[in-house]
From TrEMBL:
GO terms for biological process: protein processing. GO terms for molecular function: aspartic-type endopeptidase activity; enzyme activator activity. Keywords: Aspartyl protease, Hydrolase, Protease. The lineage of its organism: Bacteria, Bacillati, Actinomycetota, Actinomycetes, Kitasatosporales. This is Hydrogenase maturation protease.
Amino acid sequence: MSGRVVVIGVGNPLRGDDGVGPAAVDALRGRVPDGTVLAVSDGELARVLELWRGADTAVVVEALRARPGRPGELHTLTAAEAASRPAGTASTHAFGLGECLALAEALDLLPPRLVVHVMEVADTRLGAPMSEAVRTALPELIGRVAASVRRAHERDHAR
């Protein structure tokens, strides 16, 4: 194992709350151990798979559209939990994280360790501002993601 840790913020900052993943990744710069790969993706399946290729740990940060939703509510999911989310609730994108995980597994591209941090969101319309609930919860999300990254590095260095 390489000990490579990749954080992928999935979303589009031009679509209001959908920008929560990229915002979290931007805030992590300088706050995570050296060697951590910080990346942003629009959620296109092939790009996400390429970003985590060769990683021992992938941490994905994503917006979650739930019905009924509780904007700002945070969830940390395992790969299995993320894969089991019903279509249309697991992502704000055409293909959700569940589909991405299924494809990664079929292609043997699933990283050995995957942590998914999601925040329930409200408004993902093009041009919408980030909602107050999401802005308020963003620091806690950033803290959770940073803690996942630190644990991954500690686990890799303990071997």
